[in-house]
Amino acid sequence: MRIAIMIFEALTALDAIGPYEVLSRLPGSEVTFVGPQAGPIRTDNGALGLNVDVTIDDFPDPDVFLIPGGEGNRPLLTDERVLEWIRTAHETSQWTTSVCTGSLVLGAAGVLQGKRATSHWAYRELLSNFGATPTAQRVVEDGKVISAAGVAAGIDMALTLAERLAGSEVAKTIQLGIEYDPDPPFDTGSPEKAGPELVARVRADESG
Amino acid sequence: MRIAIMIFEALTALDAIGPYEVLSRLPGSEVTFVGPQAGPIRTDNGALGLNVDVTIDDFPDPDVFLIPGGEGNRPLLTDERVLEWIRTAHETSQWTTSVCTGSLVLGAAGVLQGKRATSHWAYRELLSNFGATPTAQRVVEDGKVISAAGVAAGIDMALTLAERLAGSEVAKTIQLGIEYDPDPPFDTGSPEKAGPELVARVRADESG
User: Fold this and answer.
1) Does pTM surpass 0.95?
2) Extended beta strands in A91-159, E state
């Protein structure tokens, strides 16, 4: 099982690293961090350096690929080389996946036409620009495309994907191994639970 | 607020990146990835390259510091340079924190003497070797030391810490921003919930 996670300048790290921590524990899987250019990149806030090990051109046919989000994926929306890579990879992939605004890049590549999909709540409606049906669920599976909501939702998506790839016993073992027994001190992880004031704050941060 | 996250060869990435994604969103915070040696490192499974930006010697006095886990922290348990850095940093820190087996390194440095602390469930009892009281909670706060259980628990810990540092409104806004509204497809994130068979499997993987 050859899994490609695309990373790029100014990505949101947890979008990629949450799923990586799950998928790299699948028996027989090999996770490779690919990107438009090989070499070091920095995350959206600049605080963390990651490495792109393989350029996308050198890995055209992953079994599974994942596109994360972050402000750094805006240039990808019009990067024909990246979009063409996605279209080609999608032709032969078993699963095509995204976290957060990564689904907008899948959309720009044309692979969400007529599909249900999700994204970070603040950007979800933009999916309709790409012929997709924005769907307010944490993980949305439509055919072989699985999209996750914002940032932390990638962990839930990856466990769902782990089950599809290797069965529920393996996925449950991974959940126990990473002690994913979530217990946040607050219950404000979705706009509905957080209420309008916090939603307005996040929207202001996102646009700033 | 100067926050140092220690990373090192063969760490478990999510231990560090979960908290980073929360803490880097604190207004006025600056997260720096420090380590025994500056430069590129690889994670425990080798699939991901991260960069240590600053050596610990060049950052002796963080306001907050965090030690993650992973098989790569075993050598740190007897690395006097790292342990001395922890002792010195702890003298002036506002908060001293760990995720997963990072607490064992704090213990080896001597800063958990007489304190309650936690770790990944499979290693928690080892804390008693360092004069600490192993405590089966997801996040344990004792004085200015906050320890988290395994891997994914670092996100819950970081939200708790964000509240201590900046108040609950800020912490709640961060939770909404990263859409941390967890909904795993299974409920096997703790040994109690997973049952003895899955526990045995994870123990076999960990020892292998």
Assistant:
1) yes
2) 95-99, 116-117, 133-134, 139-142, 145-148
